[in-house]
Specification:
mainly alpha, Ferritin, 2 domains, DUF305 domain-containing protein, Ferritin-like, signal, DUF305_CopM-like
């Protein structure tokens, strides 16, 4: 009788590990340090961490978004180079076009607008948003599939841009930057929805 019970438990345990193995085969996970998209995200975060704040919300929003946009462009470049999904490549091209145009506007603004407002609370909240975004990115499940990782990481990337744009609407003084903030919110909320729909249709794989 004891041998029968022991055999039964061995079969249960074997079945459990077989199920786990099957699940792991269905949802692949790649180490973040080996993932190409995550490497671009980390490089962007490192650059933003070293940004010298001016305490002028409009200028600091412009400087931060210029770095943030460049990170999105670098990720989109990788998607166009190494991705295979037509929808993701189309989104990557759209992001590159729109955000490169905004980088040009941000650069022009910074060249013509010396800092003159002192609002240290904005800088603190902006950096807190970026740190939160970095932590969230490090919690994402990535699998080394360029299309999947582009979509999943761009959702978080866009969400952090939206949060900073909302801060600009509350603290900024310059209409040019407030208009850009509104445009960023509208465009990137739509893109988040598209990324989410694409991932859900694939079962997030």
């Amino acid at each position: 009788m004891k041998n029968v019970i022991k055999l039964t438990w061995l079969l249960v345990i074997a079945g459990f590990f077989a199920a786990c193995t099957k699940d792991n085969n269905e949802i692949k996970i790649q180490n973040h340090d080996q993932d190409q998209m995550m490497s671009i995200m980390h490089q962007m975060m490192s650059k933003m961490d070293t940004m010298k704040m001016t305490k002028d919300p409009d200028n600091d929003f412009a400087m931060m978004m210029r770095m943030h946009h460049q990170g999105a462009i670098d990720m989109a470049n990788l998607e166009l180079k190494s991705g295979s999904d037509a929808t993701m490549k189309q989104m990557a091209q759209s992001i590159m076009t729109s955000q490169q145009a905004e980088i040009t506007q941000l650069t022009a603004f910074l060249a013509s607008h010396p800092p003159h407002t002192n609002d240290p609370d904005f800088d603190t909240m902006q950096m807190d948003n970026m740190k939160k975004a970095g932590k969230q990115a490090d919690l994402q499940i990535i699998n080394g599939d360029i299309d999947h990782d582009f979509a999943i990481l761009m959702i978080g990337h866009h969400q952090s841009a939206i949060e900073n744009a909302r801060l600009e609407l509350l603290h900024g003084q310059e209409q040019r930057m407030k208009t850009m903030a509104t445009n960023i919110i509208d465009a990137q909320m739509k893109e988040i929805d598209q990324f989410q729909d694409w991932l859900l249709a694939r079962g997030n794989k």
